[in-house]
Amino acid sequence: MRLEIENNINKLAKKTAINVGFCILYVNGFCFLAKEWIMPVYYSNQLYNSPVNETIMFILYISYVVMAFFLALHKNSVKSFFLWVLWALTILPLVFTYISLPEFHNMFDFVMMAIGIFIEISIICMVKINLNLNKWRMKILKYWKGGIVFFIFFVIYRYYYINGLSVFNLDFRKVYEYRFILRERMAGYLLYVDNWVMNIFNPCLCAYFLYKRKKFLFMLFVFMQILLFGFSSHKSVLLLVPIIVVIYLMSPIFLKRINYIPLFALSGIGSLFIFYYYDIRGMVLALVDRLFIIPSEVNFYYYKYFSENGFDYFKHSFFRHFYIDSADSLNIAYKIGKTFFNDESISANTGFIGSGYAQGGLPVLLIYGVIIAILINVIEAFTKKIPARLVLSFVSLPMLTLFISGDLPTTLLTGGMGVALILLYGISMEKHDIHF
């Protein structure tokens, strides 16, 4: 018994040390690339010699150890997957953006707040949820595929009925021109249905028929996704299918060996060093900036604005109907765009950390942490009935949106996470061989 405990402690210490090493390499690698490669191009007006002091750096290193320890505690691969993604795409970018951009050096408390929320989510994810999928079964959900097909054709018909083929566009260079026209013509509550069809329903059918090895049906709904892109002119709609396919194909690798995620991330950094060495910029540099620096930068702007001007308290959400005084007509994201980017037309969306703080500060963020941890536990519970790769294909995109560019209520309702869970509930009524 004593030998077994010692072995477990040694394994935990080893995993923690590996995680800490990854964290240090990841942050320091990006800090170097940010200073030498990204910042001179996009942030030259913010560069001056103002390093983070040694005490704060020491606290950050201690935080790395604590976060790495909680990651090492998790044995469930699905929960670990989402925690690793949250750590690598949201928390650590926030750290290296804080270190790299001097204008944020006075916002250390916000960085620690984000780290604290990550630890909270990690702790709650240790609780096991037994989701009784046999209780309260709705027979209508057996026909979920037919319902999805109906909504897909409804959306395509709606766009054609209102606009004809005058706004059908497959040219990436003209998407903003056509979206401006569509913004005037396509409005109302049916936009929620449009969003669900383009971002959840049709991509999920692609993943489902890929899993079922129905090649014709898979290609058919890939074609439908191209049609939806043509009518909507949203580039993300076209990119969703390859992303879904990559998640479907790669998730068994990540779930079998969860340490492959940090290795994959470090390989990505290594590739960026090659681009830096050969001074290759263009699309690569813009993508790195858009994926890592800008979301973290916007998080800090949310913290700065709402810590100085007071919280929103969900006045621009569904709860606005319960307020006596009407809210400012300008949405939160546009306020940030107007204040920090000098352009009221810019919608500066951010993930649950910045948007949660905007709604009510630390108390709201703590509640968000509890809900997100429960959400991860529910997703994991579905994998006991449905192959994990299929589950991740359905929910990974809404979760990534939540981590990078979406508020929690928005992700659950209009963002599609809620309907994705309903679809998984419908699929759980089918018989599956439970493997990756």
Summarize the structure in short.
The protein is mostly helical. It contains 17 helices and no strands.
Low-confidence segments, given as residue ranges, are none
Helix content: over 70%
- Name the assembly state: single chain
Instruction: Please tell me the overall pLDDT.
Output: 85
Overall, the morphology is globular
Instruction: Work out the number of β strands.
Output: 0
Describe the largest sheet: none
Note the total helix count: 17
Structure description:
With 436 residues, this protein is mainly α. The chain is built from 17 helices and no strands. The chain has helices spanning 2-42, 54-73, 77-100, 108-124, 144-163, 175-185, 190-211, 215-232, 235-256, 260-277, 282-309, 332-340, 352-360, 362-382, 388-404, 408-412, 417-427. The protein is globular, with a radius of gyration of 22 Å. The chain starts with a helix and ends in a 9-residue tail after the last helix.
